[in-house]
Amino acid sequence: MTTPHPNHDRGLEFDLSTLLSRRRTLGVLFGAGTAAALAACTPGSDVSGTSSSSTSSAPAAATATEGTTAAASPTASATSTVTRAFAECGVEIPEETLGPYPGDGSNGPNVLEASGVVRRDIRSSFGTSTTTAEGVPLTVTLTLLDNANGCSPLAGAAVYVWHCDQNGKYSLYDSGLEDQNYLRGVQEADANGQLTFSTIYPGAYNGRWPHIHFEVFESMSNTTAAGQVLAVSQIALTEAACKAVYATAGYESSARNFPNTTLTSDNVFGDDGGIYQLATISGSVAGGYTAALNVTV
Fold first, then answer.
1. Residue-wise DSSP of 22-72
2. What domains lie within the chain, and their CATH numbers?
């Protein structure tokens, strides 16, 4: 067993005291990247994960690959892109259940109080275990937008994400995984309202469409404070990407479970077909996937 870092058990408060000052310094770099971050706020993808005809055309060099959707890129100037993005936002992310395995203290263990939970790469457990979840690589980027302020970037907010492993099991809860905390982590939004996690493609289990859970907090310092949650929702993954991933070794149980639930019959996404939670996904099994979603709160 790897010897834990001497500060591994000092809690989230210790992590934040050493992390926030550095991140806030980086946060002042609010420049031309804003337009790029908000460009994805053009009209969204349809329920199949294919960009609608009203979106801007992607550059010729951008092509969708295996089981993917090509993200729309702006062709107008940065100024007009930002104006258009602000005008077309306004639909807040649907509120959803935390689910039975949140690990935030509302139903059993609270990983948010553990030192090490603030991280970009969530594939491995932290603390006394270093077990790594196996699976097809997935990079998840969320762009947080403030609906009350014209969908401006929600800089400084924090997001906690968690999801199941390739077998549809959750760390901290499922049998044999009670001492693991992989596929869980917290990040702070930058000046563009963006944050990114490196993880693996979640598996599928009976009764649910493949998804990723997340909570949005007002700030990093409020991630463990009751009443500071701005939104609780889930990211829906696209059918094409799921089929490609679940055809690979290690996802055998997901391949069996995936056909049993559709996006529209899912008890979370079924009310609106998941159109506001369906990620834009690109990539391939060989090279890994990227998933992006605008989250308006």
1. HHHHHHT--STHHHHHHHTTSS-B-TTSPBPTTSPPPPTT----TT--PPP
2. 12-296 (2.60.130.10)
